[in-house]
Amino acid sequence: MATHDVQDDRTATATAAKTDLTAAVAAHYDEPEWLVRRRRQAWATYHSLPMPDRVAHLWRYTDPKHFVLTTENLLPAATDAASTNARRLWETEELSGVALWQGGQVAHLHLDPKLTQAGVLLMELHRASKEYQRLVEAQMGRAVKDDHGKFEALNAAVWQAGLFLHVPRHVVIEKPIHLIIAGDGHSPFLAPRILVGLEEGSQATVVTEFVSPKDDEFAANTVVEAEVGQAASLRLVGVQRWGERVTSHFTQRAVLARDARMLMVWAGLGAEISKADLGTLLEGRGSSVNLLGMSFGQRDQHFDQHTVHDHRASDTLSDLDFKIVLKDRARSAYTGLIRIEPHATNCEAYQENRNLLLSLGTRADTIPELEILNDEVRCTHGATIGPLDEDELFYLAARGIPRAEAVRMIVAGFVEPTLKAVPEDLQERLRSYVDERVKEI
Description:
It is built from eleven helices and 20 strands. The chain is 26% helix and 37% strand. The protein is an alpha/beta fold. The strands form two sheets. A ten-stranded mixed β-sheet has the order 2-1-5-8-10-12-14-16-18-20. It starts with 8 loop residues before the first helix and ends with a helix.
């Protein structure tokens, strides 16, 4: 992978800043002037921010140098993206829409014509930035600001193509919309950006799947922003199935308005090094979020996961259940933050992270954090790390079950409560991915 060691970050920043890549990226995609200006601002922010400090707890377990690329690899690459997989998916499953993002461009889009007539927008982000500037400009960078972090600023500066979904007031999308983010086999850097917006009283389910060939080697920097309007309901499912030679930096934030509801599901299954930052900003009174997460690590995979539920309004609710399974020499670090602002009273927040270690060479770190700035709240958190229970293995062996099969049964039982909490219409696809990983144990 095209990475480099940064011996002196100040020197590297000054050298890289001499080349403004945003002009080349903007020209490549023929972007409107407002977006070009925004890229330039983000580029300046990227170079003004120092490399993350390894002393800071969010980077204690992962070296940020893994996500630094040489300048030439940040430029968009020409590619002939195939849409076969997206068409097949559309033809074989009941979906409201499907999009394929491959190799830095959107290769295929299909939305139910009835939804188009109802005003639903599913389109390439560059097109939306021209035809629906007001909507895009208002949302881009609101949930994930450029100064959120150095690599979020990098995405804002050099993101390639993107996807834009907007659902008007009181429109209910009954079947999922499936977004496929795929590698193309030769691009060294992929930088998708996804914007999802639901207006008041609308409902939608969005499944985003990240996939690439097993031996494909590249770096991915992805940002997903979601806005859930008043009394709207969004189910946002992310399935990370990158090949095991991929380095992935992923940031996702959702902003919830009054009485908005959200289900966030995350499955981390692929990549060699994966850093995922998942969060919700509960800005509206009475809003609620339920986050269900799971990760399966094997061989030398490295997962670093951070979640944050920021309660900025009263009477808000957050609930989190994150399960992690590791084998061989895999490693996981989980940090979960619950923040409740001083004026946000009568909030409830729950957080649970459980880690199952199948091999002696694995390691899991878990850090639950509470930042509660008023007394009128109810918060609980829990975390466990442990190996397989030998008593359970003995019990199954005594009934004639081979050890390998017994291990698979225990792992399946470990994640089953999380899978059962996923709505039935989403369970089948997620369960199929989990079953694949369990069979490899």
